[in-house]
């Protein structure tokens, strides 16, 4: 299936083409990490309150068993492997350096994975029951932000959304995990989307997929056509391959034509956005009451010996995952969790896989800022690249001379940090970081004003 | 880095970056000027080559000295000082004494660029400031004693001093301008190919356009500024009956493609660039027709430079979405 660019949906302005870099893993099926000897589960894996352990140290737990409660705003944790619970302790955390974490040592005596029999009524669950299963399954947004999904659904329902936009764009270079998930479980994703739409009260589902994944478009389109229950229509919308097509605001505009106001959520225009991998997890939670136990991620980049799409139990050490992919090359000097545009550099491998980690990109060579940066030469490339029409150049020169509070008219508060401006800057200026500095200064000033 | 527990560089995102860089852009600009420069040196001879070298040397040495004196990191390899020296040389009389070109380049970089804080901070186009300085300081050398270009084949002519077509047009009218190159057809040929008296780099429209084409193809510049400059000149010279002559003569194309498109001293949004280009074009026409100079592009650009920051604020990018009422 091919699509001419004129028929493709896309966002209005800006954006970049950083190159797909997806060749290394796009054609590789999802491979299972050999069972790790230990998993480490940080009690905090998402926004919200930390999970509260509900099993004791020394206790034997089976894969799938709940080991921590989610409290009022979080989600529970489940044992991703069968084994013996180790005491809660401070352990290395991918983004928080060190954080209280549970750990489970693999132990055959603990028994096999719990069984998750099908609930024949899965399509017709009462709203409260469906929402509770999403929550009890420990599902968070798997696109990277890792916000508890049950809260997002509850919020969307209250905001009376009418449209569910499924994010299958995967616009980040290098990453192919969503793509492989769409190829492996198209029916489950489509079914899961309908289940999400029902919970959120949406009347229609649109699945946005970038056009450089024609077989994912074909697979999901077929799955949508094969739906037996059709009270909620599901449409697959091919989108132009252009970064940041998968950013919420851009994707909503591309598939539905609705413009999300700056600084607001898609629910402001009646839309809920969910990642395709999240739909798969919701499907399993509602049909089988199966909790989120594994994470599918792309391990790739010029610095990895054998790039792969890996399914690994949550809490597996990144070192084990990298080892499974042949290890790193000697020249590897940077590791990014997530995609290379919006992902975060991590310092070390001895940290656990957490729910929001959709990719691990091993990079070589000098990073964009390692040689410093130059002055703004006013070339205007950042103005052309910004998908929101903001002015990173104006913000950056003001921040450089300490005029952070003058940056509001130039859009600092609206920026969601997609990185297009930094990417195109010929002077290698850290424009995203200038935006961040201005944004936090403006927010602090606003907070001070409202407090006084 | 230990084999078992490596540590990684913690750099802020995005972790990918375009291949484009400021110095690459500058060297592309310099390279795209090569055809026009070589042609100028070929047709005007040895002194033109001296002027080009002296101007580049003056620019580069001044930048280096300034950065050394202020304890700053030398940035000669970024190509921007070479660019200024080159551009200045292209806008001067090929018979200018080389030391004057050197002095002009010193002024361009020293008082046109470094004193504002170096690359990115100057308000006015440094090369044109240098030219304005030379016009004020050595007006005779800048505006008289023009060399007649050598013919394609055969020995170079003895330095015939004559006036540029624009000067002839201004002083004596269109017939005299045509006389300069014997026929109307000859005049157009002379303007397009460069067999006429003029500044080193301005004589061949075709080669300047070729360089501009390279910059367009490399997406270093867009057509917004050059086209609107040309449109402005056409509009403001239409009533003279010879807008084509104005469009094809003088340093207009060097100005439109190279000077007015200088990133630092021009606006950044397309709408601001169109306003900027039109302003330059109109001012050029007005200066040429009503002002005291036969040529107007240099001062037109310098005046418009002063407007560039304001134009950027008047013609802001259109926001994809504006902030609604807080929910």
Tell me about this structure.
The complex is a heterodimer of chains A (452) and B (327). Chain A is of the alpha/beta class and 452 residues long. Chain A folds into three domains: 5-23 and 117-288, NADH-ubiquinone oxidoreductase 51kDa subunit (Rossmann fold, 3-Layer(aba) Sandwich); 33-116 and 292-364, Ubiquitin-like (UB roll) (Roll), CATH 3.10.20.600; 381-451, no CATH class. In chain A, 28% of the residues lie in helices and 20% in strands. Chain A has helices at 23-26, 127-136, 149-158, 177-184, 186-200, 214-225, 248-256, 276-288, 318-324, 381-385, 392-400, 420-424, 431-451; strands at residues 30-32, 38-42, 52-53, 60-61, 66-69, 77-78, 83-93, 97-106, 163-168, 204-210, 234-239, 271-275, 294-300, 308-313, 332-337, 344-345, 359-364. A six-stranded mixed sheet of chain A has the order 1-14-13-17-15-16. In chain A, strands 2-8-7-4 form a four-stranded antiparallel sheet, with no helix packed on it. In chain A, a hairpin with a 6-residue loop joins strand 15 (332-337) and strand 16 (344-345). In chain A, helix 4 packs parallel to helix 6 and helix 5 crosses helix 8. Chain A is globular and about 65 Å long. Chain B is mainly α. Chain B folds into three domains: 21-146, no CATH class; 165-197, no CATH class; 221-314, no CATH class. Chain B contains 16 helices and no strands. Chain B has helices at 22-32, 34-44, 46-69, 80-90, 98-110, 126-137, 139-143, 165-172, 174-180, 184-193, 205-217, 224-237, 243-248, 252-259, 270-290, 297-314. In chain B, helix 1 (22-32) runs antiparallel to helix 11 (205-217), helix 2 packs antiparallel against helix 11 (205-217) and helix 12 packs antiparallel against helix 14 (252-259). Chain B is globular. Chain B starts with 21 loop residues before the first helix and ends in a 13-residue tail after the last helix. The relative contact order of chain B is 0.11. The model of chain B has no long low-confidence stretch (mean pLDDT 88). At the A-B interface, strand 15, strand 16 and helix 12 of A face helix 1 of B. Chain A: This is Ion-translocating oxidoreductase complex subunit C. Chain A: Its main location: membrane. Chain A: GO terms for molecular function: 4 iron, 4 sulfur cluster binding; electron transfer activity; metal ion binding. Chain A: It is a peripheral membrane protein. Chain A: Keywords: 4Fe-4S, Cell membrane, Electron transport, Iron, Iron-sulfur, Membrane, Metal-binding, Repeat, Translocase, Transport.
């Amino acid at each position: 299936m091919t699509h001419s660019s004129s028929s493709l949906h896309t966002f209005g302005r800006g954006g970049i083409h950083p190159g797909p870099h997806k060749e290394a893993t796009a054609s590789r099926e999802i491979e299972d990490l050999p069972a790790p000897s230990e998993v480490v589960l940080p009690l905090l894996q998402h926004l919200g309150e930390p999970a509260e352990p509900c099993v004791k140290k020394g206790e034997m737990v089976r894969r799938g068993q709940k080991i921590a409660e989610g409290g009022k705003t979080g989600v529970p944790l489940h044992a991703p492997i069968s084994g013996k619970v180790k005491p809660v302790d401070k352990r290395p955390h991918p983004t928080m350096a060190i954080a209280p974490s549970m750990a489970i040592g693999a132990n055959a005596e603990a028994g096999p994975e719990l069984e998750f029999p099908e609930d024949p009524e899965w399509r017709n669950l009462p709203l409260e029951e469906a929402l509770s299963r999403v929550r009890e399954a420990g599902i968070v947004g798997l696109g990277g932000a890792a916000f508890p999904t049950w809260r997002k659904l509850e919020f969307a329902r209250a905001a009376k959304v009418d449209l569910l936009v499924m994010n299958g764009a995967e616009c980040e270079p290098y990453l192919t995990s969503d793509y492989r998930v769409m190829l492996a479980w198209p029916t489950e994703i489509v079914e899961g989307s309908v289940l999400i739409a029902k919970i959120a009260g949406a009347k229609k589902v649109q699945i946005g997929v970038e056009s450089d994944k024609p077989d994912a478009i074909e697979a999901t389109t077929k799955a949508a056509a094969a739906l037996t229950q059709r009270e909620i229509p599901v449409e697959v919308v091919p989108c132009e391959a252009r970064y940041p097509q998968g950013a919420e605001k851009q994707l909503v505009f591309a598939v539905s034509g609705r413009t999300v106001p700056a600084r607001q959520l898609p629910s402001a225009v009646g839309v809920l956005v969910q990642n395709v991998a999240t739909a798969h997890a919701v499907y399993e939670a509602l049909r089988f009451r199966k909790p989120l136990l594994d994470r599918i991620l792309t391990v790739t980049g010029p610095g990895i010996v054998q790039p792969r799409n890996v399914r690994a139990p949550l809490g597996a050490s990144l070192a084990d995952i990298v080892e499974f992919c042949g290890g790193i090359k000697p020249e590897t000097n940077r590791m990014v969790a997530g995609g290379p545009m919006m992902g975060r550099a991590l310092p070390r491998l001895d940290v656990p896989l957490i729910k929001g980690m959709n990719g691990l990109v091993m990079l070589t060579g000098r990073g964009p800022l390692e040689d410093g940066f130059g002055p703004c030469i006013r070339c205007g490339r950042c103005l052309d690249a910004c998908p929101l029409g903001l002015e990173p150049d104006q913000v950056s020169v003001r921040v450089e001379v300490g005029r952070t509070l003058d940056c509001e008219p130039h859009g600092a508060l609206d920026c969601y940090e997609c990185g297009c401006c930094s990417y195109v800057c010929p002077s290698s200026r850290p424009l995203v970081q200038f935006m961040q500095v201005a944004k936090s200064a403006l927010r602090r000033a606003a907070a001070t004003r409202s407090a006084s | 880095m230990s084999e078992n527990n490596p540590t990684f560089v913690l750099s802020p995102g995005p972790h990918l970056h375009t291949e484009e860089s400021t110095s690459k852009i500058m060297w592309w600009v310099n390279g795209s000027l090569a055809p026009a420069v070589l042609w100028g040196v070929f047709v005007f001879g040895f002194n033109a080559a001296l002027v080009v070298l002296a101007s580049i040397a003056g620019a580069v040495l001044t930048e280096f000295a300034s950065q050394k004196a202020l304890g700053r990191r030398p940035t000669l390899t970024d190509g921007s000082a070479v660019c200024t020296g080159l551009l200045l040389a292209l806008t001067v009389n090929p018979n200018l004494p080389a030391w004057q070109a050197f002095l002009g380049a010193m002024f361009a970089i020293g008082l046109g660029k470094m004193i504002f804080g170096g690359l990115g901070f100057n308000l006015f186009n440094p090369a044109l400031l240098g030219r304005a300085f030379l016009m004020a300081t050595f007006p005779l050398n800048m505006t008289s004693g023009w060399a007649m270009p050598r013919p394609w084949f055969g020995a170079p002519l003895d330095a015939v001093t004559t006036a540029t077509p624009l000067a002839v047009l201004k002083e004596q009218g269109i017939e005299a301008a045509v006389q300069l190159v014997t026929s109307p057809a000859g005049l157009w040929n002379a303007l397009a190919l460069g067999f006429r008296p003029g500044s080193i780099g301005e004589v061949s429209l075709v080669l300047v356009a070729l360089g501009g084409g390279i910059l367009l193809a490399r997406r270093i510049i867009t057509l917004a500024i050059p086209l609107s400059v040309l449109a402005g000149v056409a509009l403001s010279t239409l009533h003279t009956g010879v807008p084509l002559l104005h469009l094809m003569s003088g340093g207009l194309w060097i100005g439109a493609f190279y000077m007015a498109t200088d990133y630092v001293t021009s606006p950044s949004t397309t709408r601001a660039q169109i306003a900027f280009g039109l302003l330059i074009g109109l001012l050029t026409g007005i200066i040429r027709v009503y002002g005291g100079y036969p040529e107007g592009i240099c001062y037109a650009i310098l005046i418009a430079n002063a407007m560039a920051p304001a134009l950027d604020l008047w013609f802001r990018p259109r926001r994809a979405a504006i902030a609604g009422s807080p929910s």
